[in-house]
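Supplementary Methods. Inverse-folding protocol.

Structures were first reduced to a discrete structure-token string of length 424. This string, shown here, constituted the complete conditioning input.
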């Protein structure tokens, strides 16, 4: 039988527990009001699954100022936690690292990736170890710290880990070869590439790695030979089939296109692209590239214009489909394709028509930040007698980073054009 005193005691305990719960919720709400950034960051710990994390990261990157504040605050939280319990679990830490990486806040991304490597190693999770190491390697690569890429890759290869970790070593070795080449150590890089080719007897993959190193070294004919050997092995492969075989075949042909352009061999570049267009008639990239290569070399201008306009239409239809499916928020023209359209019109001396798409391409904050696009815009302004606008465009062009070796030569030419325009 439950006595009255017991009932009273139960009621008191229940009332106390309820008060604690209410006070806890109030404090949590107060903390969230005081530190809304920290509260939002800690919620990242509960975001699980690749798709959910990707969706959340995309949402965070839309507000650039807030994203940078979040990363800065996360960096403070990580520093404050030294010697204490880290406020981030692996999921939350990975999302912060990726956001910092995307924002180029490398000073925060680096310690977060290091924390993730340590956490994954303690958990003995091969998958998480690979994920963390790859993030750090990619971060160093994007920051052009190639010696650190090599050092991190070497550490990965030298250490031992679970099965998933060991299975990733060939691909980490690939990055080691590339970073070694970026350091200018071409003999060492090529020796490593040859060892991987030898180990993968009859395979095609590491021939492409050797071709990549040779291209970086400026040995274009040898690079073309390596990629051609890879293409032949892909086509002859009995293990690669169907969609995978088609994808690797097309990718290799497309790389060869760029190599032929670098080697000033427009004919073979065009042949590769024509083959790709026949295989993929609805691919806008191949049509745009063929149109651009021809017009850039003053060839088949009317056909080039048609190809580029087809590419713009195909790209628009594809993006409208993605928007309908909820994969993207807006449909906007591809800056590279707009630049191609402006350039082919410029080559036909239709300067007034060319100016519109060139200005639209350059106005794209993300994809229009390219030296070549701004150089084309400046040329068009100059052709229209708009010298002041041309000078401003060339000045803007020189502020953009080189994205390829071709940009180095273009930068020299832009500097010469700018100097001439200023003195005339």
């Amino acid at each position: 039988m439950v006595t009255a005193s017991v009932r009273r005691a139960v009621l008191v305990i229940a009332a106390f527990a309820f008060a604690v719960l209410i006070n806890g919720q109030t404090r949590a709400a107060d903390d969230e009001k005081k530190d809304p950034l920290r509260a939002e960051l800690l919620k990242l710990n509960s975001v699980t699954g690749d798709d959910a994390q990707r969706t959340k990261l995309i949402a965070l990157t839309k507000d650039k100022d807030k994203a940078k504040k979040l990363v800065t605050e996360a960096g403070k939280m990580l520093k404050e936690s030294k010697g204490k319990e880290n406020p981030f679990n692996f999921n939350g830490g990975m999302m912060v690292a990726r956001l910092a990486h995307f924002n180029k806040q490398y000073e925060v991304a680096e310690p977060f990736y290091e924390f993730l490597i340590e956490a994954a190693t303690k958990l003995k999770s091969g998958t998480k170890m690979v994920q963390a190491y790859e993030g750090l390697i990619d971060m160093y690569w994007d920051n052009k710290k190639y010696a650190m890429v090599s050092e991190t890759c070497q550490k990965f290869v030298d250490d031992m880990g679970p099965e998933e970790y060991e299975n990733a070593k060939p691909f980490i070795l690939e990055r080691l070869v590339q970073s070694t080449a970026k350091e200018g150590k071409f003999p060492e890089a090529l020796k490593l590439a040859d060892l991987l080719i030898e180990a993968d007897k009859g395979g095609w993959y590491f021939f492409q790695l050797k071709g990549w190193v040779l291209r970086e070294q400026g040995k274009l004919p040898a690079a073309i030979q390596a990629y051609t050997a890879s293409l032949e092995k892909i086509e002859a492969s009995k293990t690669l089939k169907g969609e995978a075989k088609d994808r690797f075949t097309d990718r290799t042909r497309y790389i060869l296109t760029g190599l032929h352009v670098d080697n000033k061999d427009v004919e073979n570049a065009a042949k590769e692209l024509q083959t790709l267009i026949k295989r993929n008639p609805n691919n806008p990239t191949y049509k745009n590239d063929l149109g651009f290569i021809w017009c850039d070399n003053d060839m088949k201008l009317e056909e080039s214009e048609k190809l580029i306009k087809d590419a713009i239409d195909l790209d628009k239809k594809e993006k409208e489909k993605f928007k309908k499916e909820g994969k993207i928020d807006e449909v906007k023209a591809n800056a590279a394709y707009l630049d191609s359209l402006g350039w082919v019109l410029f080559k036909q001396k239709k300067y007034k028509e060319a100016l519109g798409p060139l200005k639209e391409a350059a106005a794209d904050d993300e994809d229009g930040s390219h030296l070549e696009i701004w150089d084309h815009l400046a040329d068009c302004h100059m052709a229209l007698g708009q010298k002041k606008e041309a000078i401003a465009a060339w000045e803007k062009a020189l502020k953009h980073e080189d994205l390829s070796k071709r940009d180095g030569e273009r930068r020299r030419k832009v500097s010469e054009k700018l100097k001439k325009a200023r003195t005339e």
